Automatic annotation (TrEMBL):
It catalyses: ATP + protein L-histidine = ADP + protein N-phospho-L-histidine. SUPFAM superfamilies: ATPase domain of HSP90 chaperone/DNA topoisomerase II/histidine kinase. This is histidine kinase. The chain crosses the membrane at residues 5-25, 37-56, 63-81, 87-104, 111-133, 145-163. InterPro entries: HATPase_C_sf, HATPase_dom, Sensor_HK_TwoCompSys, Sig_transdc_His_kin_sub3_dim/P. Keywords: ATP-binding, Kinase, Membrane, Nucleotide-binding, Phosphoprotein, Transferase, Transmembrane, Transmembrane helix, Two-component regulatory system. It holds the Pfam family HisKA_3. It is an enzyme of class 2 (transferase). PANTHER family: NITRATE/NITRITE SENSOR PROTEIN NARX-RELATED, NITRATE_NITRITE SENSOR PROTEIN NARQ.
Amino acid sequence: MPERWWRMVVPGLAVAGHLFAWIQFQYRIDALPLPEAWRSQFVFLLLFSLAFALALSFCRRLLFTWLLLSGQALLLTVIGLPFGDYLGVEVTLLAAFIIEAIFYTPWWQGAAAAAGLTGIAVGLQQLPITAWGARLSVASAHDQLAFAVYAGLLIALALLLRLEKDAQSGTATQNRSLHDATLQLSQINMQLQEYAAMAEQESVLTERKRLAREIHDTLAYTLTNLVMMMEAAMDMAGDPGAALRDHLQLSRDQAKAGLAEVRTTLQELRAVKPSETAGLPAIKQLVDTFVKATQMEVSLNFGNAPLRFGAEADWTAYRVVQEGLTNALRHGRASRVWISFAWVGAGISILIRDNGQGAAGLKEGYGLMGMRERLERLGGRMLVESKPGDGFLLSVWFPVKEGVE
């Protein structure tokens, strides 16, 4: 049971206990040798005790809690004394005090206070009491023993419930911590996946540049020297060796052509830059990275959508999918996500839903608000729906200009 429910249950039991004590008083007052004025005095003290009980549910500081409990214990003693051998009202109010003491304070302190008040009540029952000139009868040893046993059993039961509550609260805290840690690890894993892809691309680029330098320093240098040597040989051959000169000239031209091709290839190798993926390929890469990092099942359907939507629309679509995946992981705690694209009217429709826990009264955070503003600049719209147990639904549409790929 969540903590907020306990904060409602305990005051509810206190109210029920005080109401039942008033009913007991109404049935018993005529049989007691007490004046009529005690009726109004009893109601006043009972309401005062109830006010203390309700105030305890709003108290967050331990010192104030103990002050309220001390006042309530004093009121319980004053209320119970005039009843003499009738212990019904005292048992009922003591039960409410035991529950409040054990649930509103550290369990061992609350149990000690409940046991101490029980001992005081039993001790006072041993004393002859005179009220309003009438001597009240003393409860029998049997009734006093039953009073102590009932109080002890109630203390034990309240302790068991308190320990179970603490165990559930600890488990819930551990689950939240585990979920937060898993989320952080997933995000770090996604960043590592993206870094690995970028590092691999940079590595390929670096290797291309190294090969270009090696080719330039070896093959291009050799071909350049070969051309120069052939031109020198042609000059040395002169006119008498026309056939030889023609052959050397042909060899020189082929060497020049080979050198030009090598230089062109070197320029192409050096001109290669890391690819800037956009549009649907970028979204596919994002989803693949997310799946590897989180092990979540994602169904991706591009339908009849084009590969690119335009620079700003590409980035918007990427952020929409990214936000939908993040919500499914962080807030919905989903295990599966469905993403579908479709060409609808003069634009693109994106539908993202998951099988998470959902939420009632969903409030848009900065991510969703930023996405809505970006879509409005494009002339698009966004719909967000979520119900408890029904997952999270994100529906987006934005216009796309004609002529996209």
